[in-house]
Write a structure and sequence with these properties.
7 helices, 191 residues, alpha/beta, 16% strand, three-stranded mixed sheet
């Protein structure tokens, strides 16, 4: 029922119904930009046995409002700075940058717009119940467990929203609440 919907439980239900070793999530409004994306997901898991998740970047649609477009581009530019060949492996064994108050977002960052997970991991560690931000909560859990995740920009998708001013304001409030209250980020949002 719509009143019972939340992003975490919905993904957990999908995982329970799945059968493969890997589970991919693709938002209904995302358009993959590379026909080899699934091959790249497989390659990432084969090369990095310690990885439990792979996610990618969102490229905004051309008609996305400019503020929302800039926000999205800036978010992934931070990941791209550390990615070699479009790939950033995030784990404690070989830190790409120190984990501190200013880099938490990079370390915990994860997007379920287009992502792939080891199903065995999700069976043991389901998504938290969350109306918003289940992916960031999972990203934090993966890093805190000492596991690895991969940002692979080669799998990029076109995805963005066209929120009106009130909708955008509400979404930003949700995001701040998630970052400050549930994730307990020390870094304050910068504009």
């Amino acid at each position: 029922k719509k009143k019972d919907f939340n992003n975490g439980d919905t993904r957990n239900m999908g995982v329970a119904l799945s059968r493969g070793k890997l589970v991919c999530f693709v938002s209904q409004d995302a358009l993959p930009k590379n026909r080899h994306s699934f091959k790249y997901f497989l390659d990432d898991f084969r090369k990095h046995k310690e990885a439990v998740a792979v996610f990618t970047k969102d490229i905004p649609y051309t008609d996305t409002p400019i503020i929302q477009k800039l926000e999205l581009l800036c978010r992934y530019e931070r990941f791209d700075r550390y990615a070699k060949g479009g790939i950033l492996i995030q784990n404690h064994k070989k830190p790409f940058t120190p984990l501190n108050d200013e880099t938490e977002y990079l370390w915990y960052g994860l997007s379920n717009v287009f992502s792939c997970f080891r199903r065995s991991f999700l069976n043991k560690h389901p998504f938290e119940k969350a109306d918003y931000g289940e992916d960031l909560l999972m990203g934090r859990a993966i890093i805190k467990m000492g596991l690895a995740k991969i940002y692979d920009a080669r799998c990029r998708v076109t995805h963005s929203h066209r929120y009106g001013l009130v909708e955008y304001y509400q979404r930003q409030k949700e995001d701040f609440r998630l970052r400050l209250n549930r994730l307990k980020f020390k870094e304050r949002p910068r504009f």
